[in-house]
Task: structure prediction
Amino acid sequence: MLKVNEYFGGTVKSVALENAEGTATVGVMEAGEYDFGTATIELMTVTSGLLDVMLPGETNWKTYSKGETFRVEKDVRFKVKANGQVAYYCLYL
Amino acid sequence: MLKVNEYFGGTVKSVALENAEGTATVGVMEAGEYDFGTATIELMTVTSGLLDVMLPGETNWKTYSKGETFRVEKDVRFKVKANGQVAYYCLYL
Result:
């Protein structure tokens, strides 16, 4: 059965999948700023919308748009800021 | 509140979104063959996995992979076949 995950009081929702490409989720976040933690390396790709990202050790936001991917290391925290609803694909390495 | 949709007894689940790019869903389908209907023109992009598609009037399956998009007209039915779990982004025009 496909698993639906909810975070931050339902303002981020995702559906998990696993196939030949690996273990991943696709999801949507409402406009807002979020502080995420990682348990594995994550490759996060923006599917729709614009996502500002501040990775560990960085002090500036960098904007990622449709089709762009950023990598987040294992066991860190990072910040994202969505100005509108943003869809993403997150692959767990 | 983000809306989660379930189809075909939960073997297809999606999350709806709306932003500057339009109204869309991101979702996952379990391995299987599905017959979908459209209420608008749909632009469907494979986010992960391989999806065989048979559009109205066609008699052969065509395989779409990660990043590829197909267009489905309004008020038609079309078939898709997922060999494993497939993630997609569907934009409603």
